[in-house]
Amino acid sequence: MRLTLGFCLAAALAACAPAGETATSSAAPPAVAAAYAAALADPLRPQADRDRDAARKPSEILAFAQIDPGETVGDYIMGGGYWTRLLSSAVGPAGKVYAFQPDEFIAFRPAYGDEQNAAIAGRANVVALRGPVAAPPFPQKLDTIITVQNMHDLYIGAMPPGTGPKALAALFAALKPGGTLLVVDHSAVAGAGLAAANAVHRMDREAAIAALTAAGFKVEAESAAYLRPDDPRTANVFDPAIRGRTDQFVLRLRKPG
Questions:
Q1: What distance in Å separates the CA atoms of residue 178 and residue 170, rounded to the nearest whole number?
Q2: Which among 51, 66, 172, 247 is least surrounded, fewest beta carbons within 10 Å?
Q3: How much is the pTM?
Q4: Bigger pLDDT: 84 vs 12
């Protein structure tokens, strides 16, 4: 975890932004960049993951999240394990990844459990965790937590009332002082509020920031890596007309040290 506000190189190569501004990309030091390159080249990564790399820009996102070798990282709501596998290689043998899959998700779709098992196979530095979505059982304090396309799920109607604030409080508590939270989610129409989570499986960026800051986090920077101005932000993210091409916000937040 790099506690300085980035490595502000030439604008063509990188950008670092304080809260309220946008970083178009982020650069890592050479040794860290080499770790990211090795993560992408990891022979244990399935072809399906590699096919998604062009759209998901993993090196850029890992750099923006300031993932360093040796870190202890949580992948909160790990889904199919795309980021778990990358994090495993990026933090290296001296690091650790806790790959959390909520009980609620596995109950809804048992394949999430199978995908969790597949993602950790052959990875000595990854520990699979399961538990309530609002109470992830991380056994130690973490340097970084990432959650990708999941924050809106905390506010859908299927979740018990209060799930969002409880889950964000748990993530705040799980981080070390000075620790980092990376939040990526599908952008809703500005002003849509939390209702967008249930209606179209998107998150209103301002509502997200309000909820995260209420939990104690400080917004540090925002990446423009997933901006898609052609997305009107009104369609459900599962609509074939927009799926995989949604506009998304990327926030890096800090737990005060």
A1: 16
A2: 51
A3: 0.91
A4: 84
